[in-house]
Amino acid sequence: MDASVTLLSFIEKLVRSEDFVSNPALEDELKALLAKHGLLNASRIAPDTLEPEKTLLHPFNRFVCSEVCKNNRTLINNLRSTLRKHVLPNFGFSSSELKNLELVLNKLPLANFRGVEDIFIANTKVLLESKEILHGTFRGYKSSLIRFLKWLQSEKLYPTGSESPAVENGKYAPRLGNSLKQKLFSDLTQDRKGNRWRGKDPYALKETELTPRLIKQLEAKPRQLTKDDFNLTVLKNFTKKTTDWLPDYGLHYFLTAREVSKRQDRPLREITFRTRRKDILRFLGWLRNYKGFKLEDLCLELMADKGLLEEFNCWGINERGNTYAWAGQYAAASINIAKWIHHKRSKKLKYDDVKAITTIRDYGRTLGNEYKAQGTNIQKEKEEKFITFEECEQLVAYLKKACAPRRRYYREDGRTRSTAGRSDRAIISAWEHYLIVAILVYCGIRQREIRELELGKTLFREADGYWVKQEPADHKIGSKTGEGKEFRLPELLTEDLDEWLNVWRPKMPLQGHNQVFAMIGSNAHPNSMGKPFTETSLGAFVTRRVYKATSFLFDEPKRINPHFFRNIIITHQRKHGDPSKREPLATMMGQSIETADRIYNLMNRRDRTEKAQDWWKPKST
After folding, report:
1. Are 476 and 446 in contact (CB under 8 A)?
2. How much is the mean pLDDT over the chain?
3. Which of 188, 397, 401, 462 is most buried by its number of CB atoms within 10 A?
4. 297 and 211 share a domain?
């Protein structure tokens, strides 16, 4: 090989190194050395090659050596492919020239590198429609390009703000796809018609179907329940002894009261009991609608029957496609009922002398082992839900722009037809969507913690921004560890929360609470505006808007529910984040590092071994 080629190859690697980029003095020393040996001669530079600082090559090399690309070869490869295949051909370069990407980048003036995202979208549109490029590949390419453009913006080398006409800054909300020339949004409710979902084929027992016996068993206070309120025939399956040990209070009191004689467990939180209650009603509804039980024969004791419980779980797993995690929920409700019925009989720790309890406990452990082996449906649902963290940030930016006070209406040819102010309700809805999704994206907390954010109780405005301060009862893990948690919301949300809390939230007629967020109502249910969010209503509020926005932003809608943002966050952190921040992130999210890796990390097998490359080399400084 020619010595000059070898030398130039070495110099090329050197100028890409992080040490060289971070120390401008080295560049001057290198130029002086090359000039001394006659290797830096202006006459030898091709006439169509520009100075490095004026072309795209130098910023590209700096980006490749930056923290953004550190240990992320996939990002670099995707960016090279994106530029070579879907961007640079528009700047007049031939396919033969593009085989040497560095040469092309050194010919392209940085000032001409504009309109890039629109070029990429236009060039990939037909390929996507013809399926010549997969959606997953498209998202990988787009994500790498967006990260490069954001880096250029941070270096003041590229215009800030979105170039796409679909998202406009200022006083106008983004276009909503209301002309034939624009892509229409997808609607989750319409798109899921005909598909199986939780609301299809409901089998739970309705509240209006609860018999007086069931109501008493669920809600009775001390001394309100007698043995006549139990099905003694069912109880004979558990014991032949006297029934004097039966409780004189209902399940709710037993599970949630601060102290109950002979109860060996800590009380459940009200929200946990409500979940258990729903599970119980589903089991009872299955007995009635699928097993043919008469309404008057239903009682809570039936759910403590291991045989019936196993049959119910087999039905749910085999016929409805549920997981062992789902089955475990019903085993937990079953053991709660068994303890309620039999706790006065026990004289040993953990009720180890009551077979009716230990049998279900062992069954629950078996389900737990199956769950660990099987996992959840999340991997199967990944294609339907997953977006990258960079795409999450695009989503947040889009939702923020949707908070604008006015919007434009367009003709079929794309020209503006008219403008109009938006209603307070529309703007309030936009603000809530933006802030709730932003908190989910940047903090990854559970949706219950967002529902229960309350000014002066769990949310506080301090000099450095907004702090969330939770007692043990205010978050899921706190009830187990007895510890509260505190964390600061991202600084980028401070001004927006100020505007929300001081301008728009006061326009909502809050109904007896001081929560930060509340339901906005609808044309069909206007009276619900100002009511506290429920688990179901907040989930639908987020999922439907995210589905609609992602259909417009990414060409393929994503059905992301609030909890799935935790998967996106952990997956991104494990692939690209600082390992030293794993523990504080887990603390903020309310989980252990082990739980995060086991449940929320969606890295595939190739992702998990990527950082093993060059493991024998010393860590670069």
Report:
1. yes
2. 82
3. 401
4. yes
